[in-house]
């Protein structure tokens, strides 16, 4: 895979960078700027080298047409604030490849950054029709001389700004993509042991392929979050009103039979009668959930046991919260796992998405962990053993 060094001297060149700036925004206020900050090293490096840096990125799901709710304008503002100490000016184009983008590219000076409007405003970005994606890729390519892929959160997508552009311009992987791939290789190729995988989140169906691939690699799989109730039900336990995927019970029974004591389930659960922050919470045994209650977190004894497994490991991959961490009464399990991760002396990886949001919301510093991924979905697909189109194209000449 080519790196920025392989592009040679980029001074004066127009460098199109695909970044992942898909951050949570409400009322034009960014809730977590982690992905923006993760994009900075590559942008700074290129700007300091004298490149004219043009950034393309997406935000949310605007369904192929302009929608003010998904404008990247607040992101451009935050990017400008973060790059100001570096002496780097950030401009913002009000369209993707139209007149404003073309005019601003023409006027862009060396060492400056231009962020284009949400690339998903253009329906061709995510089109299944290769000819349509190719048209948009042609327009994006016309704005630049070379391409740098640095949006790890989208490398599992075959999209115009990720895949098709790379086939049209001299290309390289950015520093963020290289760092993410390096970490994922450490998780899948001879990881230091003990190797513990912690899986949570709502649905077991979202993690089936990961479990398939990691059962043979990991020493322990700790299961929490909403997905745990399908495991408990598969063991024959009552799960009350908890989240349950009935159609996955046979698959889960197969995992439990195959894995033996590799799969670790909680022994107690925090339950409540309703999915509300102020609902009265109680702790019950995992095999004794009342029929009129729903599980919203792993219990305190389970949190302690999970934390002990994590803290004793040399390699840990965590994807998915242990409970409804957004509500303080149901955040204990997630907080315990996050805290234990900070004690790991080997490699600790927070697998992006809700896990990354959880550690920040709970007050943990990014540098308390070995690595916080910017791509939850991309990480999972890599760990499933799938080929990621956005990475594969970077290996082409």
List keywords for this structure.
397 residues, alpha/beta, Rossmann fold, 34% helix, 16% strand, elongated, transferase, Phosphoglycerate_kinase, Phosphoglycerate_kinase_N
What do these coordinates show?
There is one protein chain. The strands form 4 sheets. This protein has a 6-stranded parallel β-sheet with strand order 5-6-4-1-7-8, sandwiched between helices. It has helices at residues 34-48, 73-83, 99-107, 130-142, 160-164, 175-188, 208-214, 228-234, 249-259, 300-311, 332-341, 353-361, 376-383, 389-392; strands at 14-18, 25-26, 29-30, 52-56, 90-92, 113-115, 146-149, 171-173, 195-199, 220-223, 263-264, 268-272, 282-285, 294-298, 315-319, 347-350, 371-372. Strand 2 (25-26) and strand 3 (29-30) form a beta hairpin. The protein has 2 domains: 4-175, Rossmann fold (3-Layer(aba) Sandwich); 183-384, Phosphoglycerate kinase, N-terminal domain (Rossmann fold, 3-Layer(aba) Sandwich), CATH 3.40.50. It has 14 helices and 17 strands. The N and C termini lie close together (9 Å). The longest helix is centred in the first third of the chain and has 15 residues, at 34-48. It is elongated, with a radius of gyration of 22 Å. It is of the alpha/beta class. Its EC number is 2.7.2.3. Pathway: Carbohydrate degradation; glycolysis; pyruvate from D-glyceraldehyde 3-phosphate: step 2/5. Belongs to the phosphoglycerate kinase family. ATP binds at residues 207, 295, 326, 352-355.
Sheet with most strands? 6 strands, parallel
| C-alpha end-to-end distance | 9 Å
Q: Radius of gyration, rounded?
A: 22 Å
Q: Major sheet: order of its strands? A: 5-6-4-1-7-8
CATH superfamily of the largest domain: Phosphoglycerate kinase, N-terminal domain
The domain tally reads 2
CATH class bucket of the largest domain: Alpha Beta
Task: Give the beta-strand count.
Answer: 17
- The coarse overall form would be elongated
Q: Structural class of the secondary structure composition? A: alpha/beta
If classified by CATH, what would the architecture of the largest domain be? 3-Layer(aba) Sandwich
Helix content: 25-40%
Which percent range describes the beta-strand content? 15-25%
Query: What is the number of helices?
Result: 14
CATH topology of the largest domain: Rossmann fold
Sequence stretches where pLDDT stays below 50 over 5 or more residues: none
Write down the overall mean pLDDT. 95
């Amino acid at each position: 895979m080519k790196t920025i060094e392989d592009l040679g001297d980029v001074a004066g060149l127009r460098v199109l960078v695909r970044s992942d700036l898909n951050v949570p925004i409400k009322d034009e206020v960014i809730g977590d700027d982690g992905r923006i900050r993760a994009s900075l090293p590559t942008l700074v490096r290129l700007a300091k080298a004298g490149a004219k840096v043009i950034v393309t990125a997406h935000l949310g799901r605007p369904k192929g047409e302009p929608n003010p709710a998904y404008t990247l304008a607040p992101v451009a503002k935050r990017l400008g604030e973060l790059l100001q100490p570096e002496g780097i000016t950030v401009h913002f184009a009000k369209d993707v490849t139209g007149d404003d983008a073309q005019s601003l590219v023409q006027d862009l000076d060396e060492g400056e950054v231009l962020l284009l409007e949400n690339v998903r405003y253009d329906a061709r970005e995510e089109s299944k029709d290769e000819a349509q994606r190719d048209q948009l890729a042609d327009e994006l390519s016309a704005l630049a001389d070379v391409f740098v892929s640095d949006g790890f959160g989208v490398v599992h997508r075959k999209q115009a700004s990720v895949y098709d552009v790379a086939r049209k311009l001299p290309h390289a992987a950015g520093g963020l993509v290289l760092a993410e791939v390096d970490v994922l290789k450490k998780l899948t190729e001879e990881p230091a042991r003990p190797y513990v995988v912690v899986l949570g989140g709502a649905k077991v169906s979202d993690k089936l392929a990961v479990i398939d691939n990691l059962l043979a690699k990991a020493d322990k799989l700790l299961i929490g979050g909403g997905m745990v109730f399908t495991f408990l039900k598969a063991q024959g336990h009552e799960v009350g009103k908890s989240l349950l995927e009935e159609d996955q019970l046979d698959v889960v029974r197969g995992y439990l039979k195959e894995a033996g004591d590799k799969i670790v389930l909680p022994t107690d659960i925090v339950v409540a009668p309703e999915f509300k922050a102020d609902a009265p919470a109680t702790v019950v045994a995992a095999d004794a959930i009342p029929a009129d209650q729903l599980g919203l977190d792993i219990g305190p004894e389970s949190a302690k046991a999970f934390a002990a497994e994590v803290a004793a490991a040399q390699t840990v991959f965590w994807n998915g919260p242990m409970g409804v961490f957004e509500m303080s009464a149901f955040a204990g399990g997630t907080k315990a796992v996050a805290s234990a991760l900070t004690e790991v002396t080997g490699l600790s990886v927070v697998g992006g998405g809700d896990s990354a949001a959880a550690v920040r919301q709970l007050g943990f510093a990014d540098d308390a962990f070995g690595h916080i991924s910017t791509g939850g979905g991309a990480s999972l697909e890599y760990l499933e053993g799938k080929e990621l189109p956005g990475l594969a194209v970077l290996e082409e000449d």
